[in-house]
Amino acid sequence: MIASFRTLALLGFLACVLGMAFALYLEHFRGFEPCPMCIFQRVAMIGAGLVFLAAALHGPRGFGRWVYALLAATVSGIGAGIAARHVWLQSLPEDQVPACGPTLDYLMDMMPLTEVVRLVLEGDGNCAVIDAQWLGISLPGWTLIAFIGLALWALIAPVLARRPGW
């Protein structure tokens, strides 16, 4: 049985909630301190979750489904881009890793937002540290996989939805 668009959007939202719950578990119960790029990935995960939630609550028909799908896919794509940059930083040889920088809180206090975003996306030595791996893939690698899955789910949901009018 193929589900309704609302149900499919709700599943996308729940995937984002699980992703955020896991990130918070790692931070608060396992002691992994998120680097600035990790925080930006969390913002993208929350953004994708909010788009999926809005789609589930609204339950659009026809073209409206594609609007939500493209919004969720775009936010997930932005998250995937940040995660890919993070994975790239982690793959650099040790002598090419950028120097460690100040914390995100300090940057936000001292600089305009656009400059903070630019600096964080450049990355620093904190972002190149691999704290944990599973199956040989680092946490940002798994986040990249999750964002790709969310983007694909967003684009598949309007197609899988039972009938155009439901």
Automatic annotation (TrEMBL):
Originating species: Sinimarinibacterium thermocellulolyticum
Gene that this sequence comes from: dsbB
InterPro entries: DiS_bond_form_DsbB/BdbC, Disulphide_bond_form_DsbB, DsbB, DsbB-like_sf
Described purpose of this protein according to its UniProt entry: Required for disulfide bond formation in some periplasmic proteins. Acts by oxidizing the DsbA protein.
Major location category of this protein: membrane
This protein's record includes keyword Transmembrane helix: yes
Membrane-crossing segments per the record: 39-59, 66-88, 141-161
UniProt family annotation: Belongs to the DsbB family.
Compartments where located: Cell inner membrane; Cell membrane
Name of the protein this chain belongs to: Disulfide bond formation protein B
Membrane topology: Multi-pass membrane protein
Cytoplasmic side: 1-8, 61-66, 161-166
Disulfide bonds: 35-38
Residue numbers on the Periplasmic membrane side: 26-43
Gene3D superfamilies per UniProt: DsbB-like
Protein keywords: Cell inner membrane, Cell membrane, Chaperone, Disulfide bond, Electron transport, Membrane, Oxidoreductase, Redox-active center, Transmembrane, Transmembrane helix, Transport
